[in-house]
Design goal:
Layout (H helix, E strand, L loop, with lengths): L3 E4 L6 H12 L2 E4 H10 L3 H11 L6 H13 L7 E4 L5 H13 L6 E6 L2 H15 L7 H23 L4 E5 L4 H17 L1
The chain binds adenosine-5'-diphosphate (ADP).
Amino acid sequence: MFNIILFGPPGSGKGTQAKIIEEKYDLHHISTGDLFRYELKNETELGKKIKHIMEAGELVPDKITIEMLKNKILSFDNPKGFLLDGFPRNNNQAKELDKLLEELGEEVNVLISLDVPEEEIVQRILNRGKTSGRSDDNDENIIRGRYKVYMDQTLPVYKYYENKNKARTVNGVGDIDEISNRILCAVEEHNKK
Ligand code: ADP
């Protein structure tokens, strides 16, 4: 398998780039945010439990998130690999992911981080909020709060994979195609290593 983590702050373009990269490498794109929003939309038990957490821009508890991610990964027959978007979001999730993949005889191959400054993030998300229908995209305070959650809880995941020589950063500002190329180059460069 070939497993990539697409990393970066909220609004850094992970979802947009994931669609392009998954096709290129024939991977299964798993977005924990999308999985949670599906639960919300369908008003499932889980959806009801996590609604207020997501609206506040906080992290859903690890127990729920990890369980959902595991079930999703194990639901595929002979996958070629996964493109993870929005997971892992803290070091505990990263360790659990590594454990699960190890049980499958696999590993995270590379983490690609999209670098986008905070002010650009806030503008992008407010813009997206005009059409996304996501309540967490409409309030500048909540957006800045999500960015802070990223800096405090998620950024350590970069270090975690950097220590394993698996982390790369690309500039996440520019044209969509340009950024896709940067990601593909970073993956190829990493694979040559
Ligand atoms: P964005 O990257 O724009 O913040 P996501 O779709 O990745 O959007 O996530 C939306 C929300 O879903 C997060 O703010 C959080 O509440 C929840 N969420 C998504 N992934 C995780 C995760 N791995 N751990 C905990 N909560 C998560």
